[in-house]
Amino acid sequence: MASPVAAISAAVRSERQRRGLSLSELARLAGLSKATVSQLEAGTGNPGVETVWALSVALGVPFSRLVTPPRPAIRILRADEGSPTQAEESHYTATLLASCAPDAQCDIYRIHAEPGRARRSAPHLPGTVEHVVITAGRASAGPLDQAVELDVGDYVSYRGDIPHVFQALEPGTIAVFVLEQN
């Protein structure tokens, strides 16, 4: 099985070529340096969540298409398994649990977050809706100017195609995110 970086590397290269983009064009669309994209495609980069999101938006594909290997018929993912991706500027780790078929356009993530700097997200693809359920701890989530506090079992949904935020308010906060892309 390929490492997470190798899988992302191959997926980015494949999607870039499928769209007929040069490295320079993809870098420009994603707001990244050409060197960053080149290193990532060569398998020598170590991208954070923000970098992979920027590439997925620039390529017009769900985040999951860049980080998920092909699915087996039955898949079990234990709580301590998966390939977590650490945010670059906050105590926030996203583990992709499942991605839907390409025509369904949804991804499911388990988020582990600690109090501290909020995880601010740039807008995702147009039409994206985020669904969040808190399974441990407490958090604040939603659009930057309308984030709400959530306790265990609470659910919120909001537009993911505008700037939004997630911030743990207690140690050991865990949430399940579903990103629905229409």
UniProtKB/TrEMBL annotation:
GO terms for cellular component: cytosol. Residues 12-66 form the HTH cro/C1-type domain. Keywords: DNA-binding. Gene3D superfamilies: Jelly Rolls, lambda repressor-like DNA-binding domains. InterPro entries: Cro/C1-type_HTH, Lambda_DNA-bd_dom_sf, RmlC-like_jellyroll, RmlC_Cupin_sf, TransReg_Diox_bact_type. Transmembrane segments: none annotated. Pfam families: HTH_3 (PF01381). This is XRE family transcriptional regulator. It comes from Embleya hyalina.
